[in-house]
Design goal:
With 510 residues, this protein is mainly alpha-helical. The protein has three domains: 2-18 and 363-508, no CATH class; 64-196, no CATH class; 200-302, no CATH class. It is 53% helix and 2% strand. The protein is built from 27 helices and four strands. The chain has helices at residues 2-16, 27-37, 46-53, 55-63, 72-79, 88-95, 107-116, 118-134, 138-150, 160-172, 180-188, 191-196, 220-229, 239-248, 291-302, 305-319, 326-338, 343-351, 369-380, 388-396, 414-417, 420-435, 456-461, 470-476, 483-491, 497-502, 505-508; strands at residues 252-254, 267-269, 279-281, 284-286. The two termini are 27 Å apart.
């Protein structure tokens, strides 16, 4: 009953917050603001460190993550995840489906191969959560998540269970703060994207390479490349442009799985399946030349004003407000164009904009389930050895890692995640986490945390550690709670204080 009452209270408080007049964020709130926006919230000591360093210097450091050393234990743990270092070709060779014999696949061998390949996604999930929780390069982690959602790939589609981890590691993470054109090109050529949006099947109908499943244009990737990845739904392109882009990208795909005609990245351009005719794309002539046509099309898309506007809107929506200020989007768009899509420069402009520091936008972004869980674990300073409870909770909250079916990725807006059931589940998680009953610090005894389901009640009741110290938790969060929240906490029994803090409207938002 107390849980239901708390859920209703949080829901109503969240809906009512941030309705005041616009003003600059007071200096005493700026530290917590940057930690909630550029990072996944503070861990113990972060507020004091950023305050001593200075907010501007903290922003500068986060924009240059290579200047921030990783903790030795985190580097060591990541090094032990061997599939993280494998390229797509090696992943296919070691974990892919068995070879056909007499044109047939042994069903038992196929099942065993699929089971064995689960380790790839398990290690990808471990790496993502460990980094998000423990890495001091917090902006890099935030932007890796941002761009993965922007260039989403659904891991459960066919062969993508082999390649999704490598996709994030090799096509997203290295370019998260770099030049947009390089990021766009890396995603366009990665096997995970080529398979997910079917461009590996994209073939000129009258080409000599058309056969089997490779017979005719497939427009899926071309359409999403413009609608989601670059220009935006209102970017001024036509259906003719979609068809033309699909023709340009014919032959962009995967080589023979165990052949010699692909590089270690897995991408292969097949000239036998390409449409070599000259084309008009977005009003510009692209002469038939093979693979270079695709590169030219990506250049056009990356430098298009509509792309600058679309990317700027998404960044402003993520870092400032669900309905971002048009003036800010316009300035970010111009910065994008002036710097040839330098993501770091666009973010620098955003983080020093008056809109970013406007008090009416302070604490107005509801955390996604992923942001909420990561921020809660960071705030409580629990050493995460076993990520299984977090993975399971993300599934319960409708946001499993690498599990978004549609190419538009998970939303980061309030209306996507704010509902009574979601709040109840969050508060239940906060209660279990605060009590010390979530076994995050205990090694998972099962070989493969994604392999077997565990009764949620049994998992929650497993002894794990000491209850969270609410006094230390308040200090970590800089004691920034409303009078209403403080009254509710003080009126509750002492063992519930930490849970109420983690379930408060202030903590639900960033």
């Amino acid at each position: 009953m107390k849980l239901i009452v708390l859920c209703i209270a949080v829901l109503s408080w969240v809906l009512m917050t941030n309705s005041g007049m616009a003003a600059a964020i007071p200096d005493e709130l700026k530290t917590l603001h940057v930690l909630n926006r550029l990072a996944y919230g503070p861990s113990p000591g972060d507020v004091q460190k950023v305050r001593a360093l200075g907010v501007n210097q903290y922003i500068e450091e986060q924009l240059t993550p290579d200047s921030i050393p990783l903790p030795e234990h985190l580097s060591r743990e990541l090094d032990e995840l061997e599939t993280l270092r494998m390229d797509p070709v090696r992943l296919f060779k070691e974990y892919g489906p068995p070879l056909k014999r007499d044109r047939q696949v042994d069903p038992e061998a196929a099942r065993e191969a699929r089971e064995r390949a689960r380790i790839i996604m398990e290690q990808a999930v471990q790496a993502r959560l460990w980094r998000a929780i423990e890495s001091p390069r917090q902006l890099q982690e935030v932007m890796t998540d941002f761009w993965y959602n922007h260039f989403n790939v659904f891991a459960a589609k066919g062969l993508d269970h082999l390649w999704t981890g490598a996709y994030e590691e090799q096509a997203i993470r290295p370019y998260a703060l770099g030049r947009f054109r390089e990021l766009l090109g890396a995603t366009a050529k990665h096997p995970a994207m080529l398979f997910y949006l079917d461009n590996w099947q994209n073939t000129a109908s009258n080409s000599i390479g058309a056969h089997g499943k490779l017979q005719g244009l497939n427009e899926n990737y071309a359409r999403e490349l413009m609608e989601l990845h670059t220009l935006g739904v209102d970017g001024g392109y036509t259906q003719d442009d979609v068809i033309t882009l699909a023709r340009i990208l014919t032959g962009w795909g995967l080589g023979r799985p165990r052949g010699r005609d692909i590089n270690k990245g897995g991408f292969f351009f097949d000239p036998k399946r390409h449409d070599f005719s000259s084309k008009i794309f977005l009003g510009q002539t692209i002469r038939g030349s093979g693979i270079d046509e695709g590169e030219e099309a990506l250049d056009i898309l990356a430098r298009h004003p509509a792309t600058a506007r679309h990317i700027s809107f998404e960044l402003a929506q993520y870092f400032v407000a669900d309905d971002p200020p048009p003036a800010l989007v316009k300035r970010l768009s111009q910065r994008f164009l002036d710097t040839d899509g330098e993501i770091r420069a666009v973010l620098d402009t955003l983080f020093h904009s008056p809109e970013f520091w406007d008090q009416k936008y302070y604490g107005n972004k509801l955390k996604t389930p992923y942001q909420y869980l990561v921020s809660a674990v960071r705030a409580t300073d629990i050493k995460v050895v076993n990520v299984r409870p977090l993975y399971g909770m993300l599934m319960q909250l409708g946001m499993p890692l690498y599990g978004c079916l549609t190419p538009d990725g998970y939303k980061n807006t309030r209306d996507a995640w704010l509902n009574p059931d979601a709040m109840t589940r969050r508060i239940s998680f906060a209660t279990v986490l605060a009590s010390g009953r979530l076994p995050l610090g205990q090694p998972n005894k099962e070989s493969g945390f994604m392999r077997k389901k565990t009764n949620d009640r049994e998992r929650e009741m497993t002894p794990a550690g000491e209850p969270i110290n609410d006094v230390e938790l308040v200090r970590t969060l800089d004691n920034r709670f409303s009078t209403q929240t403080q009254t509710a906490i003080n009126a509750a029994p002492k063992p519930l204080h930490a849970a109420l803090i983690l379930g408060s409207p202030e903590f639900m938002q960033r």
